[in-house]
Amino acid sequence: MASGLVRLLSRGPRCLLTPTAPTTAPPVRGVKKGFRAALRFQKELERWRLLRCPPPPVRRSEKPNWDYHAEIQAFGHRLQETFSLDLLKRAFVNSCYIKSEEAKRQKLGLEKENVLLNLKDNHELSEQGASFSQTCLTQFFKDAFPDLPTEGVQSLVDFLMSEEVVCHVARNLAVEQLTLSEEFPVPPTVLQQTFLAVVGALLQSSGPERAALFLRATLGFPSSDKKLIAEAPGETVLVAEEEAARVALRKLYGFAENRRPWDYSKPKENLKAKETLPVKAAAT
């Protein structure tokens, strides 16, 4: 303490009177980078949380910008088929949906007249669609495979009419989003019944010809407009794919194994090229 006081007095009074300049802290850099890194980390955590615990599926009708009437009309245009709107709307109404809605109204204490819904389920349309699909697919396979026995035809029809195949086709056609059902996701049995009801609605709206074409395009023989370029065996799938790619390239560029051998004969001279001489017109 004494030594420090002696140093200040030796420097003179100016050292005591001059105010010390405020010390400013150096600017801290990298704050924005740290903030961005924190946001990225938070988004990554959110993504992993959604992957591990995905949220329950929500009906499309519960999301914004939903117009059921417009979606019904767009469904027919998307399939390029002409439907009666009343029949198509009826095809998507299941009996379980009507029962659940009536039970909800009854819990609210409404009168019996107001509890009943003015809707008709798709049971009749589904039966018509199932019967027509069974007959139509059977005829398709008999025409395509005339030597196939009846048991083979029936097994193919049963496979295409199975719950798994029909539900797969219905989901790809967005039938599940328009189906009015008590549960969501729609149970496979209800979804299969709804798809067959759509077939029945098309049968009554546009006739058996359009319904048969629709079945042929969806359940029967879907055309993907693809051609088999090459095929090859292999010990594993990867080896077979690589060998098939080599065979395809040979076929595309004309280097197939069964091509004609190289022509080593003397090339023929083009006599016409020698005979033709440039004609010069002399001006007189």
What would you note in describing this structure?
The chain is an all-alpha fold. 61% of the residues lie in helices and 0% in strands. The protein contains 15 helices and no strands. Helix 5 packs antiparallel against helix 12 (188-206) and helix 12 (188-206) packs antiparallel against helix 13. The termini are far apart.
What is the element layout, followed by pairings?
Layout: H1 2-11, H2 13-17, H3 31-52, H4 68-79, H5 85-91, H6 95-107, H7 112-115, H8 123-144, H9 150-160, H10 163-172, H11 175-178, H12 188-206, H13 208-220, H14 237-253, H15 271-275
Helix pairs in contact: 5-12, 8-9, 8-12, 8-13, 10-12, 12-13
Question: Which structural traits does this protein have?
Answer:
284 residues; 61% helix; single chain; 15 helices
* Rg value: 39 Å
Poorly predicted runs: 279-284
Summed over residues and divided by their number, the pLDDT gives a mean of 79
Main beta sheet, described? Answer: none
Quick recap:
Residues 86-226 form the RNase III domain. The chain has 284 residues and is mainly alpha-helical.
